[in-house]
Amino acid sequence: MSNRIPSREELVGRAAELVPLLQKNAPWGEENRRLPQETVDALAESGLLKMRVPTRYGGYESDMRTVVDVVAELGRGDGSTAWVASVFAVSTWMAGLFPDEVQDEIFAEPDVRVSGILSPTATAVPTDGGVLLNGKWSFNSGALHSSWNTNAAILLTPEGPQPIMVALPMADLEIIDDWHTAGLRGSGSVTTVARDVFVPEPRVLPMVPVLQGQHRSLANADSPVFKAPFMATACATVSAPAVGLARAAKDSFFERLPGRKISYTTYESQAEAPITHLQVAEAITKIDEAEWHARRAADLVDTHAAAGAQWTLEERARVRLDLGAVSQRAKEAVDILTTASGGSSVFTAVPIQRIERDVQTLNLHAILHPNTNYELYGRIACGLEPNTLYL
Prior knowledge:
Layout: H1 8-32, H2 37-46, H3 64-77, H4 79-95, H5 100-106, E1 114-117, E2 122-127, E3 130-140, E4 148-157, E5 160-169, E6 174-176, E7 190-200, E8 204-206, H6 207-211, H7 230-238, H8 240-256, H9 274-307, H10 313-339, H11 351-364, H12 370-381
Parallel strand pairs: 1-4, 2-4
Antiparallel strand pairs: 2-3, 3-7, 4-5, 5-8, 6-7
């Protein structure tokens, strides 16, 4: 096992090398509502799935900025692949918060893929040696290609309900093939169901300490990567696919620009029209803004983790603000470039129509929705208490 940790530049370069393959496979993923196995295998062979794996298992423990830059580059190839890669990254990191004996079990499989759900839409009741779990999780991105899930649930106790995280082998869950959507179709974000699944006590984590950056891994206790709060880590990570989709829209637009005219006008070249110049400049400005917010969130996670600094409430909310801004600016950029792409862009062979649907779907996600994130930050800026535990 090599102990060499690839640099950020090397990992981003590996992601860039995958872009043509992801572009080629994206239509298949959309049609079949899941990632092609060739794509999943390529991600594993590239080593990019090791970014959030602890080094003692052969992983890289890459910092947040590296994860964001890599996932954004994957998004330039395919939004669904980038989204699943971001979920793998968050869930793999989450596995590193469980007791070390649980990690030994999860990471015993080389190139293990871990997916997961933050919404506590299942319930657990205490039983001898653990909990008994029942319920379902929708939008379980990457579950079709995963061996493990790190999912949220509500533990029902005499003292009252308590949010928890559980680590589950995918073999314990039933999969419902219900991912029939307009966007991110290739992500295979199916529903999974637990029916009287026994979860041993070591694979149960109280959620509130996790949200505050406290965990039960002794081996990862001194690792900066695993010191960050959950929501800051998760939000910074899932901001990256939107950045990638905005870049993909820019690539797609400029690839089709040469030789295009503006119908029913005297412009034989769209590239010569002032409206095109305005559209391109505005879209690129918004892409730059999306990248800035994604990197600000990532850099805050990294600098606080390295310094062991405490997070203020405003800083936690600002990461949520950055996530909303990334989503909104990326969508605005894609909207502009889609509008400028003309009627022929509605054909399924033209990537920008898929990119448009993918970025719209991201903006509707509960944790990415700009309105939700802006309201949360605004409440705190105005001196009110947050209306969520997810900070």
